[in-house]
Amino acid sequence: MASLEEQIAAIEDEIRRTPYNKATSGHIGRLRARIAFLRLEREKRSRGKGGGIGYAVRKSGHATVALVGYPSVGKSTLLTRLTGANSQAAAYDFTTVSIIPGMMDAAGASVQVLDMPGLVPGASRGRGRGREVLSVVRSADLVLFMIDKDHPDFRGLREELEDAGVRVNARRPRVIVTPAARGGLTITSTVKLTRLDPESATGIAREFGLHNGSIVFREDATAEQLIDVLAGNRVYLPAILAVNKSDLLAPADRAKIREQVKPFEPIFIAAESGQNLDELVLALVRALAFIRVYLRPPGGEADRVEPLILRGGSRIQDLLARLPPDLGKNFKAALVWGRSARFPGQTVGRDHALADEDVVTVLVQRGRAVPA
Ligand SMILES: Nc1nc2c(ncn2[C@@H]2O[C@H](COP(=O)(O)OP(=O)(O)OP(=O)(O)O)[C@@H](O)[C@H]2O)c(=O)[nH]1
Ligand SMILES: [Mg+2]
Q1: Could you give the CA distance from residue 42 to residue 47 in angstroms, rounded to a whole number?
Q2: Is the pLDDT of residue 132 over 90?
Q3: Pair 145, 243 in one domain
Q4: Enclosing domain of residue 322
Q5: Same domain, yes or no: 131 and 241
Q6: What values do phi and psi take at 27, rounded to 5?
Q7: For ligand 1, atom 1, which residue shows the shortest CA distance?
Q8: Which of 35, 122, 144, 149 is 20 to 30 A from 358 (CA-CA)?
Q9: pLDDT in tens, 106-125
Q10: How far apart are CA 201 and CA 37, in angstroms?
Q11: Which amino acid residue places its CA nearest to atom 21 of ligand 1?
Q12: Distance CA 171, CA 231 (A)
């Protein structure tokens, strides 16, 4: 029996050899699904073997940013500049061999930046330290891509992340999969499907062993998006792109890079001299979309001085995760004032999404109300 790696390579080869048209799209969709399924298997097996020693990084601060780029583009130079952490920089590849964390203040939020070994093509298949690096990226809150004039292959860099199940600047597809024990597979949609027909969707589901249950499309999803939902292990992260060593770039180089990296809007920096780092930090803060939430004890006044800083899109449950654990355990409801509330003092549950400058009172069981 061929190894998982060989099976994946063989199917990739078949996809390359098959011309894409209406008649073959269903078949190609199934092949892609099979690859996604085999990759899941590969991941399960490599987890069983342990490994990843030296790559466990404790997250710290309000958000974690992963620095992703090819060797020698200047990642360590940037980390040292932004955070003062000492990560060795040198004019040869693979200077950095483990993950080096640093902390910086960004508009009042504390942000952890992770410097990592450079990625190489094939990283997601385990080349270099690729797989370990990519597993750390998966746990970050934002990807900071870095390229330079000598390493402009941004598409290749993005593909390594794609293959590791990281989706950048995309949101989770609105496709709901509910397995059942029997009854066959029903496919319904609330919108017109123009990119994927029901037969192809059924074929893809089969590759994941889904024969009974329902798939509901709430958006006009592609085969790739359905595969992502079925695989279930995708992470969706915001990302920005910095082009380093811009001290070496002529205006024509900049224009060419801008064209190559679309739809990303690159930020040109020079990590060594510190040029344009303010703009980079602003972009980071914007992409992380921090919100401030003020806690208010029941019947008291809100603490307007020290907001809790959370990521945009955070829910009550994310707020609870930042408070003493017994509050989460004894949580009964929360009262919310501000932009996320339909009316002042609305009673909400754990799923309620918060907005910037909301005021929140947490109510716990047995009449105990906190924070005091
Ligand atoms: N001209 C110029 N050189 C830079 C700049 N930033 C970094 N460098 C140089 O680029 C080389 C590589 O820098 P590093 O920070 O070690 O790069 P890295 O991405 O961490 O490399 P690896 O750890 O090997 O993946 C060093 O010689 C730096 O001095 C810059 O803004 N301009
Ligand atoms: Mg380095």
Answers
A1: 9
A2: no
A3: yes
A4: 290-370
A5: yes
A6: -60, -45
A7: 245
A8: 144
A9: 888 899 999 998 888 777 77
A10: 15
A11: 72
A12: 15
124 compared with 341, residue with greater pLDDT:
341
Pocket of ligand 1 (CB under 6 A): 69, 71-77, 89-91, 93-96, 117-118, 244-245, 247-248, 270-272
Same domain, yes or no, for 161 and 283?
yes
Q: What percent of the chain has pLDDT over 90?
A: 69
Residues 185 and 212: their CA atoms lie apart, in Å, by: 4
The CB density around residue 97, as the number of other CB atoms within 10 Å, is 13
The pLDDT assigned to 370 comes to 56
Which domain-ending residue is among 257, 288, 319? 288
| Residue with tokens 């390579």, as numbered in its chain | 9
CA of 115 to the centre of ligand 2 (A): 7
CB count in 10 Å sphere of residue 74: 22
Note the pLDDT of residue 277: 97
Q: Give how far Cα 2 sits from Cα of 27, 44, 68, 250, Å.
A: 22, 17, 32, 50
Write down the H helix ranges in the chain: 4-17, 22-48, 75-83, 130-138, 154-163, 198-207, 223-231, 251-260, 277-288, 316-321, 325-329
Between the CA of 54 and the centroid of ligand 1 the distance, in Å, is 23
